[in-house]
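Morning!

This is the sequence you dropped in the shared folder:
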Amino acid sequence: MRHGDLDADVLVVGGGPVGLAAAIHARAAGFDVLVTDRRTGTLDKACGEGLFPGALRAVQALGADPPGHPLAGISYRAPGRHADHRFAAGPGRGVRRTALHEALWKRAADVGASFQHGRVTRLRQDAAVVEVEMAPGGGADGTGAGRAPVTLRAGWVLGCDGLHSTVRRLAKLDTGTGLRAGRPASHRYGLRRHFRVPPWTDLVEVHWAPTVEAYVTPVGADTVGVALLGTRTTLQAGFDTLLRSQFPELGARLAAAPTTGALLGGGPLRRRSRRRSAGRVRLVGDASGYVDALTGEGVRVGLAQADAAVRNLDDAAAYERAWWTVTRDYRVLTTGLLTWASSPARRAIVPAASRAPWLYGAVVERLAR
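The structure's back. Tokens below.
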């Protein structure tokens, strides 16, 4: 129930999967919730779209069950070698990001969350209230142009607005990319495209080339998604060129397959925040910090953060501790793999995984929880 003269007990900025999960948790805790986003409609994102078993269970625990394609495990692949591991705790699911968003949006609406379109332009707070100024619309289509800004008052603000978080910046929690200035060529980015072709495997395939990775995820009976990760310099060669030149086997398999939807990009991937809280503001998901997409942990970690943020709304120190706990495996494993992948030993990743399947399997199971 809304308290006093507030527009909402909890204002969630960012209507992606993590923001919607936070809204669902907040409604379950009895809070009046308003979700805002500068975008409208079903939201998409350049990502791998694979829900590992733990992530799928977390989504289903929220009351959503998006359609997709079963995922049985992960395969690391390089020319002439591969290492496969099948999940021990049941399947995950390849899910189009649009399908995930639709399922969580419907669930958030069903449990009573409200929604408002607009972009955050200012943030002020005192000991009891956060005031957020919203510019109506803000999309490329000019929706809301010419209308006066509105001020929303909430007891708490959850910044779930992604890598380029406005809430993080306005709350003075931003530290940028976390990479040294003067080395923009080392910043990593992602590109993603879908192909209309029946999946040839129930595994997420990670193809390793000298300077770029390709993540292949079956997301439907007739669709696979391919995400490329690399530096800006590498990706400037173009998606199709990289697919043909760096992954000839994969490129040949997809050569005759029609593409569907737009080519999407995102990055730089690495982001840091000074802290996860500032007064009555909490950062959640990618807005709170992100290392890289190498391990595919983003959704599961973000959902765990959303739960922790709502459970610890009135205790910033407790949320900070919970944030470090739920992100520990992701940070350690991703940082280690990124360091390895950025070193001269990169070519040894797939051979090492195939020679030590017990270790490779242990890492995959750790991520799949």
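Headline: The first helix runs from residue 17 to 28.

More detail when I'm at my desk.
O.
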